[in-house]
Write a structure and sequence with these properties.
Blueprint lengths: L1 E5 L3 H12 L3 E5 L3 H8 L10 H10 L3 E4 L2 H6 L3 E4 L14 H13 L4 E5 L7 H11 L7 E5 L9 H6 L4 E5 L2 H11 L6 E4 L1 H32 L3 H9 L20 H14 L5 H25 L6 E5 L14 H11 L3 E5 L4 H7 L4 E2 L12 E4 L4 H4 L3 H6 L5 E4 L6 H6 L3 E3 L11
Parallel strand pairs: 1-2, 1-4, 2-3, 4-5, 5-6, 7-8, 9-10, 9-12, 10-11, 12-13, 13-14
Antiparallel strand pairs: 6-7
Helix pairs in contact: 1-3, 5-6, 9-11, 9-12, 11-12
The structure holds nicotinamide-adenine-dinucleotide.
Amino acid sequence: MKVAVVGTGYVGLVTGVVLADMGNQVIGVDNDPSKLAQLRAGISPIYEPGLEEVLKRTIQEGNITFTDSIAEAVEQSEVVFIAVGTPPAADGSPDLSAVKSVACSIASGIRSYTVVVNKSTVPVGSGGLVEGIIRDAGVPEDLFDVVSNPEFLREGSAIRDTLEADRIVIGAKRREAAMKLVELYAPLERPMHITDLASAELIKYASNSFLAMKISFINAISRICELCGADVGDVAKGVAADKRISPLFLQPGLGWGGSCFPKDVQGLLRVSQDFGYDFKLLAEVIEINESQTANFMDRLSKRLGGFSGKHIAVMGLAFKPNTDDIRYAKSLAIIERVLGEGGTVRAYDPVAAANVREIHPDIEYASHVYEVAEGADALILVTEWNEFKQVDLVRLRETMRQPILFDGRRIYSAATAVKAGLEYHSIGVASSVPAQ
Ligand code: NAD
Protein backbone atom coordinates (compact mmCIF):
# COMPACT_ATOMS: atom_id res chain seq x y z
CA MET A 1 0.00 0.00 0.00
CA LYS A 2 1.18 3.59 -0.59
CA VAL A 3 1.49 5.37 2.73
CA ALA A 4 2.66 8.80 3.92
CA VAL A 5 3.67 9.48 7.52
CA VAL A 6 3.80 13.16 8.49
CA GLY A 7 6.18 13.69 11.43
CA THR A 8 9.24 11.45 11.69
CA GLY A 9 9.70 11.51 15.48
CA TYR A 10 9.50 8.54 17.86
CA VAL A 11 6.05 7.53 16.61
CA GLY A 12 6.14 8.55 12.94
CA LEU A 13 9.57 7.15 12.16
CA VAL A 14 8.94 3.83 13.89
CA THR A 15 5.53 3.49 12.20
CA GLY A 16 7.04 4.44 8.83
CA VAL A 17 9.93 1.98 8.90
CA VAL A 18 7.82 -0.89 10.24
CA LEU A 19 5.22 -0.37 7.49
CA ALA A 20 8.03 -0.08 4.90
CA ASP A 21 9.62 -3.27 6.22
CA MET A 22 6.28 -5.01 5.65
CA GLY A 23 6.62 -4.13 1.94
CA ASN A 24 4.52 -0.94 1.78
CA GLN A 25 5.75 2.11 -0.14
CA VAL A 26 6.25 4.74 2.56
CA ILE A 27 7.03 8.46 2.34
CA GLY A 28 8.20 10.04 5.58
CA VAL A 29 7.52 13.77 5.85
CA ASP A 30 9.10 16.24 8.25
CA ASN A 31 9.66 20.00 8.36
CA ASP A 32 13.02 19.70 10.11
CA PRO A 33 15.73 19.84 7.39
CA SER A 34 18.48 18.43 9.62
CA LYS A 35 16.31 15.43 10.51
CA LEU A 36 15.56 14.83 6.83
CA ALA A 37 19.27 14.96 5.93
CA GLN A 38 20.07 12.37 8.61
CA LEU A 39 17.17 10.12 7.61
CA ARG A 40 18.12 10.16 3.93
CA ALA A 41 21.64 9.11 4.98
CA GLY A 42 20.15 6.19 6.94
CA ILE A 43 20.91 7.76 10.32
CA SER A 44 18.23 7.73 12.99
CA PRO A 45 17.93 11.19 14.64
CA ILE A 46 16.66 9.50 17.82
CA TYR A 47 18.09 6.74 19.97
CA GLU A 48 15.79 3.75 19.75
CA PRO A 49 17.09 0.16 19.85
CA GLY A 50 16.94 -1.55 16.43
CA LEU A 51 15.50 1.48 14.63
CA GLU A 52 18.53 2.47 12.56
CA GLU A 53 18.97 -1.07 11.31
CA VAL A 54 15.39 -1.21 9.92
CA LEU A 55 15.76 2.33 8.56
CA LYS A 56 18.89 1.42 6.58
CA ARG A 57 17.33 -1.81 5.30
CA THR A 58 14.11 -0.18 4.12
CA ILE A 59 16.01 2.64 2.39
CA GLN A 60 18.22 0.10 0.59
CA GLU A 61 15.16 -1.90 -0.47
CA GLY A 62 13.59 1.30 -1.82
CA ASN A 63 10.53 1.05 0.45
CA ILE A 64 10.94 4.36 2.25
CA THR A 65 11.85 7.89 1.10
CA PHE A 66 11.77 11.25 2.87
CA THR A 67 10.50 14.68 1.87
CA ASP A 68 9.50 18.02 3.36
CA SER A 69 6.47 18.36 1.10
CA ILE A 70 3.23 17.12 2.68
CA ALA A 71 1.19 17.81 -0.46
CA GLU A 72 3.60 15.85 -2.67
CA ALA A 73 3.55 12.86 -0.28
CA VAL A 74 -0.27 12.95 0.02
CA GLU A 75 -0.73 13.03 -3.77
CA GLN A 76 1.08 9.68 -4.00
CA SER A 77 -0.55 7.98 -1.00
CA GLU A 78 -3.77 6.10 -0.18
CA VAL A 79 -3.26 6.37 3.59
CA VAL A 80 -1.74 9.42 5.32
CA PHE A 81 -0.72 9.29 8.97
CA ILE A 82 -0.50 12.41 11.13
CA ALA A 83 2.22 11.72 13.73
CA VAL A 84 3.31 15.19 14.80
CA GLY A 85 3.78 16.32 18.41
CA THR A 86 0.89 17.52 20.59
CA PRO A 87 2.79 19.05 23.51
CA PRO A 88 0.93 20.60 26.44
CA ALA A 89 0.07 24.29 26.09
CA ALA A 90 0.49 26.62 29.08
CA ASP A 91 -3.00 25.75 30.40
CA GLY A 92 -2.34 21.98 30.26
CA SER A 93 -4.47 21.35 27.19
CA PRO A 94 -2.72 19.71 24.23
CA ASP A 95 -1.36 22.15 21.64
CA LEU A 96 -2.95 21.05 18.38
CA SER A 97 -1.30 23.69 16.19
CA ALA A 98 0.96 21.17 14.39
CA VAL A 99 -1.97 18.80 13.78
CA LYS A 100 -4.08 21.65 12.38
CA SER A 101 -1.35 22.95 10.10
CA VAL A 102 -0.60 19.44 8.82
CA ALA A 103 -4.33 18.85 8.17
CA CYS A 104 -4.39 22.02 6.05
CA SER A 105 -1.40 20.87 4.00
CA ILE A 106 -2.89 17.39 3.59
CA ALA A 107 -6.02 18.96 2.11
CA SER A 108 -3.92 20.64 -0.58
CA GLY A 109 -2.53 17.26 -1.70
CA ILE A 110 -5.69 15.13 -1.88
CA ARG A 111 -6.41 14.13 -5.52
CA SER A 112 -8.11 10.74 -5.05
CA TYR A 113 -9.78 8.92 -2.14
CA THR A 114 -7.45 9.21 0.88
CA VAL A 115 -7.70 7.89 4.41
CA VAL A 116 -6.24 10.45 6.83
CA VAL A 117 -5.18 8.73 10.03
CA ASN A 118 -4.62 10.60 13.27
CA LYS A 119 -1.88 8.80 15.20
CA SER A 120 -0.94 11.78 17.36
CA THR A 121 -2.48 11.69 20.84
CA VAL A 122 -5.35 14.17 20.69
CA PRO A 123 -8.44 15.11 22.71
CA VAL A 124 -11.86 13.71 21.96
CA GLY A 125 -13.28 15.58 19.01
CA SER A 126 -10.00 16.06 17.18
CA GLY A 127 -11.03 13.66 14.41
CA GLY A 128 -13.93 16.00 13.68
CA LEU A 129 -11.57 18.97 13.82
CA VAL A 130 -9.24 17.47 11.20
CA GLU A 131 -12.21 16.48 9.06
CA GLY A 132 -13.56 20.06 9.26
CA ILE A 133 -10.21 21.59 8.26
CA ILE A 134 -9.92 19.33 5.19
CA ARG A 135 -13.56 19.90 4.20
CA ASP A 136 -13.29 23.67 4.67
CA ALA A 137 -10.24 23.64 2.40
CA GLY A 138 -12.58 22.49 -0.39
CA VAL A 139 -11.97 18.72 -0.46
CA PRO A 140 -15.26 16.93 -1.25
CA GLU A 141 -16.55 14.66 1.57
CA ASP A 142 -16.47 11.54 -0.56
CA LEU A 143 -12.76 12.01 -1.34
CA PHE A 144 -11.47 11.38 2.21
CA ASP A 145 -12.13 9.88 5.62
CA VAL A 146 -10.52 10.65 8.95
CA VAL A 147 -9.61 7.71 11.16
CA SER A 148 -8.24 7.68 14.72
CA ASN A 149 -5.45 5.14 15.28
CA PRO A 150 -3.79 6.03 18.59
CA GLU A 151 -0.29 4.78 19.27
CA PHE A 152 0.70 2.74 22.32
CA LEU A 153 4.41 2.10 21.65
CA ARG A 154 6.91 2.75 24.41
CA GLU A 155 10.21 4.49 23.75
CA GLY A 156 13.03 2.02 24.28
CA SER A 157 11.03 -0.90 22.85
CA ALA A 158 9.18 0.95 20.10
CA ILE A 159 9.88 -1.45 17.23
CA ARG A 160 8.89 -4.53 19.22
CA ASP A 161 5.81 -2.76 20.60
CA THR A 162 4.71 -1.89 17.07
CA LEU A 163 5.24 -5.42 15.78
CA GLU A 164 3.67 -7.05 18.83
CA ALA A 165 1.03 -4.49 19.85
CA ASP A 166 -1.47 -5.76 22.45
CA ARG A 167 -4.16 -4.22 20.30
CA ILE A 168 -4.52 -1.91 17.32
CA VAL A 169 -7.28 0.62 17.94
CA ILE A 170 -9.08 1.95 14.87
CA GLY A 171 -11.82 4.56 15.25
CA ALA A 172 -13.80 5.63 12.21
CA LYS A 173 -17.17 6.99 11.12
CA ARG A 174 -17.37 4.74 8.08
CA ARG A 175 -16.59 1.01 7.97
CA GLU A 176 -14.76 1.28 4.60
CA ALA A 177 -12.20 3.64 6.10
CA ALA A 178 -11.58 1.37 9.09
CA MET A 179 -11.18 -1.57 6.71
CA LYS A 180 -8.38 0.21 4.85
CA LEU A 181 -6.36 0.23 8.07
CA VAL A 182 -7.33 -3.34 8.89
CA GLU A 183 -5.88 -4.29 5.49
CA LEU A 184 -2.69 -2.29 6.13
CA TYR A 185 -2.09 -3.83 9.57
CA ALA A 186 -3.32 -7.37 8.74
CA PRO A 187 0.21 -8.83 8.19
CA LEU A 188 1.08 -8.00 11.82
CA GLU A 189 -1.65 -10.44 12.96
CA ARG A 190 -2.49 -8.40 16.07
CA PRO A 191 -5.92 -8.01 17.71
CA MET A 192 -7.80 -5.07 16.20
CA HIS A 193 -10.31 -3.03 18.14
CA ILE A 194 -12.62 -1.20 15.78
CA THR A 195 -14.77 1.55 17.20
CA ASP A 196 -16.01 5.11 16.63
CA LEU A 197 -13.72 8.15 16.50
CA ALA A 198 -14.46 9.55 19.98
CA SER A 199 -14.02 6.16 21.68
CA ALA A 200 -10.68 5.56 19.95
CA GLU A 201 -9.44 8.98 21.01
CA LEU A 202 -10.55 8.37 24.61
CA ILE A 203 -8.99 4.87 24.76
CA LYS A 204 -5.53 6.41 24.41
CA TYR A 205 -6.01 9.03 27.15
CA ALA A 206 -7.72 6.54 29.47
CA SER A 207 -4.96 3.93 29.00
CA ASN A 208 -2.09 6.30 29.79
CA SER A 209 -3.96 7.91 32.69
CA PHE A 210 -4.70 4.50 34.18
CA LEU A 211 -1.03 3.46 34.00
CA ALA A 212 0.07 6.78 35.53
CA MET A 213 -2.53 6.26 38.26
CA LYS A 214 -1.06 2.82 39.07
CA ILE A 215 2.40 4.35 39.51
CA SER A 216 1.09 7.24 41.60
CA PHE A 217 -0.88 4.81 43.72
CA ILE A 218 2.14 2.72 44.64
CA ASN A 219 4.16 5.89 45.18
CA ALA A 220 1.53 7.11 47.64
CA ILE A 221 1.85 3.74 49.39
CA SER A 222 5.64 4.31 49.44
CA ARG A 223 5.09 7.52 51.41
CA ILE A 224 2.99 5.66 53.96
CA CYS A 225 5.77 3.04 54.18
CA GLU A 226 8.32 5.75 54.94
CA LEU A 227 6.09 6.97 57.78
CA CYS A 228 5.13 3.60 59.27
CA GLY A 229 8.29 1.53 58.74
CA ALA A 230 6.94 -0.89 56.10
CA ASP A 231 8.93 -1.77 52.95
CA VAL A 232 7.08 -0.73 49.79
CA GLY A 233 8.97 -3.36 47.77
CA ASP A 234 7.40 -6.13 49.83
CA VAL A 235 4.03 -4.39 49.83
CA ALA A 236 4.06 -3.99 46.01
CA LYS A 237 5.08 -7.62 45.55
CA GLY A 238 2.27 -8.83 47.80
CA VAL A 239 -0.30 -6.62 46.09
CA ALA A 240 0.90 -7.49 42.56
CA ALA A 241 0.60 -11.23 43.21
CA ASP A 242 -3.15 -10.74 42.76
CA LYS A 243 -3.78 -11.50 39.06
CA ARG A 244 -6.43 -8.79 38.94
CA ILE A 245 -3.75 -6.18 39.73
CA SER A 246 -0.48 -7.40 38.03
CA PRO A 247 3.05 -6.19 38.80
CA LEU A 248 3.25 -3.97 35.71
CA PHE A 249 3.45 -0.24 36.42
CA LEU A 250 3.47 -0.98 40.14
CA GLN A 251 7.14 -0.16 40.75
CA PRO A 252 7.64 2.59 43.31
CA GLY A 253 10.17 5.27 42.40
CA LEU A 254 10.60 8.96 41.64
CA GLY A 255 7.41 8.98 39.57
CA TRP A 256 6.48 9.15 35.93
CA GLY A 257 7.85 11.54 33.31
CA GLY A 258 8.45 11.48 29.57
CA SER A 259 6.60 12.99 26.68
CA CYS A 260 3.36 11.05 27.14
CA PHE A 261 2.10 10.48 30.70
CA PRO A 262 2.42 14.09 31.95
CA LYS A 263 0.79 15.46 28.81
CA ASP A 264 -1.91 12.81 28.50
CA VAL A 265 -2.99 12.84 32.16
CA GLN A 266 -3.19 16.66 31.99
CA GLY A 267 -4.97 16.31 28.64
CA LEU A 268 -7.65 13.98 30.01
CA LEU A 269 -8.12 16.19 33.06
CA ARG A 270 -8.62 19.15 30.73
CA VAL A 271 -10.91 17.29 28.33
CA SER A 272 -13.02 16.08 31.26
CA GLN A 273 -13.41 19.67 32.49
CA ASP A 274 -14.35 20.82 29.00
CA PHE A 275 -17.09 18.17 28.89
CA GLY A 276 -18.30 19.19 32.37
CA TYR A 277 -16.79 16.40 34.50
CA ASP A 278 -14.46 17.26 37.37
CA PHE A 279 -11.99 14.32 37.32
CA LYS A 280 -10.56 14.94 40.82
CA LEU A 281 -8.81 11.56 40.89
CA LEU A 282 -6.55 12.62 38.00
CA ALA A 283 -5.65 15.91 39.70
CA GLU A 284 -4.48 13.85 42.69
CA VAL A 285 -2.54 11.43 40.43
CA ILE A 286 -0.59 14.45 39.15
CA GLU A 287 -0.11 15.92 42.62
CA ILE A 288 1.28 12.63 44.03
CA ASN A 289 3.68 12.41 41.09
CA GLU A 290 5.02 15.92 41.63
CA SER A 291 5.37 15.59 45.38
CA GLN A 292 7.18 12.25 45.07
CA THR A 293 10.39 13.82 43.71
CA ALA A 294 10.04 16.83 46.00
CA ASN A 295 9.77 14.56 49.06
CA PHE A 296 12.85 12.57 47.97
CA MET A 297 14.84 15.77 47.52
CA ASP A 298 13.59 17.13 50.87
CA ARG A 299 15.00 14.02 52.53
CA LEU A 300 18.35 14.48 50.79
CA SER A 301 18.44 18.18 51.67
CA LYS A 302 17.70 17.35 55.31
CA ARG A 303 20.48 14.75 55.36
CA LEU A 304 23.01 17.22 53.90
CA GLY A 305 21.87 20.26 55.85
CA GLY A 306 20.74 21.98 52.64
CA PHE A 307 22.20 21.98 49.13
CA SER A 308 24.16 25.22 49.41
CA GLY A 309 27.84 24.51 48.70
CA LYS A 310 27.12 20.79 48.19
CA HIS A 311 28.17 18.84 45.12
CA ILE A 312 25.61 16.29 43.90
CA ALA A 313 26.19 13.43 41.46
CA VAL A 314 23.24 12.51 39.23
CA MET A 315 23.30 9.06 37.68
CA GLY A 316 20.86 8.85 34.76
CA LEU A 317 19.17 11.71 32.92
CA ALA A 318 16.75 10.10 30.46
CA PHE A 319 13.15 9.88 31.68
CA LYS A 320 13.52 6.10 31.57
CA PRO A 321 16.18 3.61 30.39
CA ASN A 322 16.85 2.83 26.72
CA THR A 323 15.92 6.25 25.41
CA ASP A 324 17.57 9.64 25.00
CA ASP A 325 14.25 11.38 25.64
CA ILE A 326 14.44 13.87 28.52
CA ARG A 327 11.00 15.45 28.19
CA TYR A 328 9.61 15.84 31.75
CA ALA A 329 12.50 13.71 33.05
CA LYS A 330 12.81 13.67 36.83
CA SER A 331 16.53 14.44 36.42
CA LEU A 332 15.63 17.97 35.31
CA ALA A 333 13.59 18.73 38.44
CA ILE A 334 16.41 17.31 40.58
CA ILE A 335 19.15 19.33 38.86
CA GLU A 336 17.06 22.50 39.06
CA ARG A 337 16.38 22.00 42.78
CA VAL A 338 20.09 21.53 43.60
CA LEU A 339 21.22 24.48 41.46
CA GLY A 340 18.36 26.66 42.73
CA GLU A 341 19.48 26.08 46.33
CA GLY A 342 23.15 26.86 45.72
CA GLY A 343 24.59 23.41 45.00
CA THR A 344 26.56 22.08 42.03
CA VAL A 345 25.89 19.01 39.88
CA ARG A 346 27.85 16.49 37.84
CA ALA A 347 25.73 14.13 35.76
CA TYR A 348 26.13 11.02 33.67
CA ASP A 349 23.84 9.23 31.24
CA PRO A 350 24.82 6.68 28.56
CA VAL A 351 22.85 8.47 25.80
CA ALA A 352 20.81 11.44 27.07
CA ALA A 353 23.58 13.80 28.31
CA ALA A 354 23.76 15.77 25.04
CA ASN A 355 20.04 16.60 25.28
CA VAL A 356 20.34 17.81 28.88
CA ARG A 357 23.47 19.82 28.02
CA GLU A 358 21.30 21.96 25.70
CA ILE A 359 19.15 22.96 28.69
CA HIS A 360 21.90 22.89 31.33
CA PRO A 361 25.26 23.92 29.94
CA ASP A 362 25.91 25.10 33.53
CA ILE A 363 26.56 21.66 35.07
CA GLU A 364 29.43 19.17 34.67
CA TYR A 365 29.06 16.00 32.62
CA ALA A 366 31.03 12.84 33.32
CA SER A 367 32.25 10.88 30.32
CA HIS A 368 31.75 7.55 32.09
CA VAL A 369 29.90 6.34 35.14
CA TYR A 370 32.95 6.07 37.42
CA GLU A 371 33.65 9.79 36.97
CA VAL A 372 30.21 10.94 38.03
CA ALA A 373 30.59 10.69 41.80
CA GLU A 374 34.06 12.28 42.13
CA GLY A 375 34.02 14.68 45.10
CA ALA A 376 30.24 14.32 45.52
CA ASP A 377 28.43 14.85 48.80
CA ALA A 378 25.70 12.53 47.60
CA LEU A 379 24.92 10.32 44.62
CA ILE A 380 21.37 10.18 43.27
CA LEU A 381 20.28 7.28 41.07
CA VAL A 382 17.63 8.74 38.77
CA THR A 383 17.33 6.41 35.72
CA GLU A 384 17.49 2.64 36.08
CA TRP A 385 19.79 1.87 33.12
CA ASN A 386 21.05 -1.76 33.19
CA GLU A 387 24.62 -0.44 33.20
CA PHE A 388 23.96 1.16 36.60
CA LYS A 389 22.62 -2.07 38.07
CA GLN A 390 26.01 -3.71 37.43
CA VAL A 391 28.10 -0.78 38.68
CA ASP A 392 30.87 -1.35 41.26
CA LEU A 393 29.54 0.63 44.24
CA VAL A 394 32.84 0.40 46.14
CA ARG A 395 34.67 2.06 43.24
CA LEU A 396 32.05 4.81 43.13
CA ARG A 397 32.08 5.33 46.91
CA GLU A 398 35.89 5.66 46.93
CA THR A 399 35.63 8.77 44.74
CA MET A 400 32.99 10.52 46.90
CA ARG A 401 33.42 13.21 49.53
CA GLN A 402 30.52 11.77 51.57
CA PRO A 403 29.34 8.15 51.08
CA ILE A 404 25.62 8.91 50.66
CA LEU A 405 23.49 7.14 48.05
CA PHE A 406 19.90 8.14 47.30
CA ASP A 407 18.40 5.44 45.09
CA GLY A 408 15.38 6.93 43.32
CA ARG A 409 14.47 3.70 41.51
CA ARG A 410 15.19 1.08 44.16
CA ILE A 411 17.71 -0.75 41.94
CA TYR A 412 20.20 -1.54 44.71
CA SER A 413 19.55 -3.50 47.86
CA ALA A 414 20.30 -1.79 51.16
CA ALA A 415 22.57 -4.72 52.07
CA THR A 416 24.73 -4.32 48.91
CA ALA A 417 25.03 -0.57 49.34
CA VAL A 418 25.89 -0.80 53.02
CA LYS A 419 28.45 -3.54 52.30
CA ALA A 420 30.04 -1.12 49.82
CA GLY A 421 30.33 1.41 52.65
CA LEU A 422 27.46 3.62 51.51
CA GLU A 423 24.59 5.08 53.48
CA TYR A 424 21.52 3.84 51.62
CA HIS A 425 18.40 5.93 51.26
CA SER A 426 15.62 4.97 48.89
CA ILE A 427 11.88 5.20 48.28
CA GLY A 428 9.39 3.64 50.67
CA VAL A 429 11.91 1.91 52.90
CA ALA A 430 13.91 2.78 56.02
CA SER A 431 17.42 4.14 55.40
CA SER A 432 20.40 1.89 56.18
CA VAL A 433 23.72 3.11 57.48
CA PRO A 434 27.00 1.15 57.59
CA ALA A 435 28.12 0.13 61.08
CA GLN A 436 30.81 2.47 62.48
P1 NAD B 1 8.27 13.94 18.21
O1 NAD B 1 8.37 15.32 18.71
O2 NAD B 1 9.37 12.96 18.48
O3 NAD B 1 8.07 13.96 16.62
C1 NAD B 1 7.23 14.83 15.96
C2 NAD B 1 7.84 15.10 14.58
O4 NAD B 1 6.94 15.89 13.82
C3 NAD B 1 9.16 15.88 14.63
O5 NAD B 1 10.13 15.20 13.86
C4 NAD B 1 8.81 17.23 14.03
O6 NAD B 1 9.89 17.83 13.34
C5 NAD B 1 7.68 16.87 13.10
N1 NAD B 1 6.77 17.97 12.77
C6 NAD B 1 6.22 18.87 13.61
N2 NAD B 1 5.44 19.73 12.94
C7 NAD B 1 5.48 19.34 11.65
C8 NAD B 1 4.89 19.83 10.45
N3 NAD B 1 4.06 20.89 10.48
N4 NAD B 1 5.16 19.20 9.30
C9 NAD B 1 5.99 18.12 9.27
N5 NAD B 1 6.58 17.62 10.37
C10 NAD B 1 6.32 18.22 11.55
O7 NAD B 1 6.88 13.37 18.76
P2 NAD B 1 6.52 11.87 19.11
O8 NAD B 1 7.09 11.50 20.42
O9 NAD B 1 6.76 11.00 17.93
O10 NAD B 1 4.94 12.01 19.32
C11 NAD B 1 4.03 12.23 18.25
C12 NAD B 1 2.62 12.01 18.76
O11 NAD B 1 2.47 10.64 19.17
C13 NAD B 1 2.27 12.86 19.98
O12 NAD B 1 0.93 13.22 19.92
C14 NAD B 1 2.51 11.90 21.14
O13 NAD B 1 1.72 12.21 22.25
C15 NAD B 1 2.07 10.58 20.54
N6 NAD B 1 2.70 9.41 21.15
C16 NAD B 1 4.03 9.43 21.48
C17 NAD B 1 4.60 8.28 22.03
C18 NAD B 1 6.04 8.28 22.44
O14 NAD B 1 6.45 7.35 23.17
N7 NAD B 1 6.86 9.22 22.03
C19 NAD B 1 3.82 7.13 22.25
C20 NAD B 1 2.49 7.15 21.88
C21 NAD B 1 1.93 8.29 21.32
